[in-house]
Design goal:
The chain is of the alpha+beta class. It has one domain. Helices cover 50% and strands 15% of the residues. The chain is built from two helices and two strands; from the N terminus they run ααββ. Strands 1-2 form a two-stranded antiparallel ribbon. It is elongated and about 55 Å long. The relative contact order is 0.18. Bound molecules: zinc ion. Zinc ion (ZN) binds next to helix 1.
Length: 66
């Protein structure tokens, strides 16, 4: 039981770091359309792309990989 709880803690903190990277540093939008609209408004439509976030169930903008 002790082992399981420790192991579980490791997984949880790994997920927390993942959320930190993908959510807290970025704006979240309720719809893909809203995220795209913001990118277009900033003249970044060709630089940024949208993705659905499994953690906060919103949409984020991220720089397109080249
Ligand atoms: Zn998110």
């Amino acid at each position: 039981m002790d082992w399981w709880l420790r192991h579980r803690g490791d997984i949880d903190s790994a997920v927390d770091r993942d959320i930190e990277r993908s959510c807290r540093s970025k704006d979240a939008y309720e719809t893909e359309e809203a995220a795209r609209a913001v990118a277009a408004m900033n003249g970044m439509a060709n630089v940024l792309h949208t993705y659905h976030c499994v953690y906060c169930d919103n949409w984020h903008l991220t720089r397109q990989k080249r």
